[in-house]
Design goal:
heterodimer, A: alpha/beta, 6 strands, 49% helix, B: 3 domains, 5-stranded mixed beta sheet, 65% helix, 8% strand
């Protein structure tokens, strides 16, 4: 019971606050704006709550202004407090969206990894409406690139027991069971399977009815061949 | 090159002239309309009208014609209405000191960097581009349909410009929309702040856009990940513009009404201040400030703990994968009849198995832990020791690389 409660709390935190603390900052900002506003002008400030990000920014500016005003003659402390506040906000808000952890230089104007892009073009050159089994993290690229693709292998949380969940689980392992992957691919009528070149399963998928069609950089395209 | 650059001036010219309707709206409240609000209001009207009109199922060229005609009509009527309208008196100009200029330069640099990053860098997660599927359907089908209005509009525009929606989203849209969102922010700051506080708030909001969102639920509205999504447009543009209109509406309320409402509140305040002097506005502000700082610190600590816990879990999983795992097989008689060894190199070795009465339960065991055994050691060649193995290997339910027989002679002399 307690464990489930903590699991729910953790999930809620990850989903709605994440490693950033915007909801907390926003709530604190709304308080700060209302407190820093004289009573006769309070009603005018209520709509600012709607603006979300500008409300947080306004609150930050008002807090700094109020601090400087209240510590007149002690400006060093005011400046130190403002710097501390800014640092805490940055620290609490998590990592920058534009940090090397989350980003890498786009290889083309569509922001699709070049090898995945080449694979998609190679498959569409072979078949007009292909059904493709792909690595879960590539499924969105395939679907956003063309509606001609029917994609098997979306990112889902493991444990549901369906094909997508089994694939997510298998591809999260160091050595995925290619027999299971091939079985799911056959069952869903996948004419093609696209896998990364650096995947080294114990038994390759070529043993289970798929043959290598093309290698595009870090991607290998397998085409359905004769069944074993 | 022109098709990447042209949408920027076209959008802002249309937004500026359509924004005259916003100026007229604020004029009704006797408020002065700054250029930032005019562009914010006009931009919102242009995008919303475009999005709604593109939902009519038509060939994309026809839909594009209707959208552009409507946008030009709104802008032209705004131009005429703006000329005829009576302008409110401009308030005193802000004092633009050195701090103002420095903060403006800093903000502009940060915004320019954000646009560059949005165009040039690919983000690890792909959730943000999931809605582009709708735009791709419009682009490939060359026909609009009822769906996400923002994405149908993107699909229409990209189809007419002969540019894949993903390319449109990552090359044409960032300069137009990210700048537009900051103009909307500026319209809010113009309404609430004065002087150097305005660029200071702009700088703070730019920093928040870079650090403020990391959760799954907020991906769809994060300016630097989803500037092309409907929730992002609603949060960054529509809500800010609405906040300005509501504020001016409240400000235009007759003073008598305000006074009457304030008077109604006064007796309680006097009672509060006289009898509970300790609970005054200053002390409350300090308490809430401290609470905010505490909350932020708590979140920072929680973040660090969660990240550390995650790193440990990942390390533990890697360790478990990299070491020998042993699984015990319980036979039909309820006793341990075999052991499966999963080596650090992935090699599977099985020892034992028992008689043919174990066939079904042993098959279920292998279905769980892997049906390909590299080495199988059985205790004898008779049915009681290798019956289950023989059935499974013969039926093909389990593949065995090499099979060995080991003696089970007891060393009684020791």
């Amino acid at each position: 019971m307690i464990k489930e409660l903590f699991a729910e709390l953790y999930r809620g935190y990850r989903d709605f606050a994440g490693s950033g603390a915007l909801p907390v900052l926003f709530a604190a900002s709304v308080f700060a704006v209302f407190i820093a506003t004289p009573k006769e002008k309070l009603r005018e400030k209520v709509p600012i709550v709607l603006s979300v990000i500008p409300a947080c920014a306004c609150a930050l500016v008002l807090i700094c202004e109020e601090t400087i005003k209240r510590t007149k003659g002690r400006k060093k402390w005011a400046a130190a407090f403002a710097v501390l506040l800014a640092m805490m906000i940055v620290a609490a808000s998590g990592k920058s969206v534009i940090s090397p952890e989350f980003t890498e230089k786009a290889e083309n104007r569509m922001h699709i990894p070049e090898d995945v892009y080449e694979s998609m073009q190679a498959i569409l050159a072979e078949e007009d409406d292909p059904t493709v089994l792909v690595l879960p993290k590539w499924s969105t690229y395939f679907e956003s690139y063309s509606t001609h693709f029917t994609v098997v292998g979306h990112e889902v949380s493991a444990g549901d027991g369906n094909d997508e969940a089994v694939l997510s689980f298998e591809f999260s392992k160091k050595d995925p069971d290619m027999e299971k992957v091939a079985r799911i691919a056959h069952r869903n009528g996948c004419g093609f399977v696209v896998l990364p070149g650096d995947l080294w399963p114990d038994i390759p998928i070529t043993k289970f009815g798929y043959e290598q069609m093309k290698e595009c950089g870090g991607c290998i395209i397998y085409r359905e061949g004769a069944r074993p | 090159m022109m098709r990447y650059i042209l949408p920027f001036p076209v959008f802002y010219i249309l937004a500026y002239y359509s924004g005259a309707w916003g100026e007229k709206l604020l004029g009704r409240y006797g408020a002065f309309c700054r250029s930032s609000f005019r562009i914010a209001f006009g931009g919102c009207i242009t995008v919303m009208a475009g999005g709604l009109l593109s939902l009519i199922p038509l060939p994309v060229n026809v839909s594009f014609g209707i959208v552009m005609a409507a946008a030009v009509a709104i802008a032209a009527s705004g131009y005429v209405a703006g000329r005829r309208g009576r302008k409110a008196v401009r308030p005193e100009k802000d004092d633009k000191g050195l701090a103002y200029i420095i903060l403006c330069i800093l903000s502009a640099t940060l915004i320019a960097f954000q646009i560059y990053a949005a165009c040039a860098y690919r983000f690890e997660g792909t959730e943000a581009i999931r809605p582009v599927r709708t735009a791709a359907a419009v682009y490939e089908g060359a026909h609009t349909f009822f769906g996400d209005p923002m994405m149908v509009l993107v699909g229409t525009m990209s189809s007419v410009m002969r540019m894949h929606p993903l390319e449109f989203v990552y090359t044409v849209m960032p300069p137009v929309f990210i700048v537009f969102y900051y103009v909307c922010y500026m319209s809010v700051f113009d309404c609430f702040l004065t002087g150097a506080k305005k660029p200071a708030a702009l700088l703070a909001s730019a920093l928040l856009s870079m650090w403020g969102y990391q959760s799954a639920a907020q991906t769809g509205m994060t300016m630097l990940l989803s500037w092309f999504s409907l929730p992002a447009f609603a949060v960054h543009a529509v809500l800010g513009t609405l906040a300005v209109i509501l504020t001016e509406a409240v400000r235009s309320m007759p003073e008598d009404d305000k006074g009457r409402l304030d008077e109604e509140d006064d007796p309680e305040e006097e009672w509060d201040m006289k009898k509970h002097r300790i609970v005054n506005a200053r002390n409350l502000a300090i308490a809430l400030g401290a609470l905010a700082v505490l909350l932020i610190a708590a979140v920072a600590v929680l973040n660090s703990k969660i990240n550390r816990l995650y790193a440990v879990t990942v390390g533990l999983q890697e360790d478990m994968k990299g070491t020998l795992s042993v699984y015990e097989y319980i036979g039909a008689d309820g006793k341990a009849d075999g052991y499966l060894l999963n080596g650090s190199d992935g090699e599977i070795t099985f020892v034992g198995g028992g008689g043919s009465e174990n066939t079904d339960s042993l098959k279920a065991f292998f279905d769980t832990y892997g049906n390909a055994v590299d080495k199988w050691y059985v205790y004898g060649e008779g049915d009681e020791d290798s019956g289950a193995m023989r059935s499974l290997v013969k039926s093909g339910a389990v593949s065995a690389g090499k099979i060995y027989v080991i003696g089970r002679k007891e060393l009684k002399e020791l």
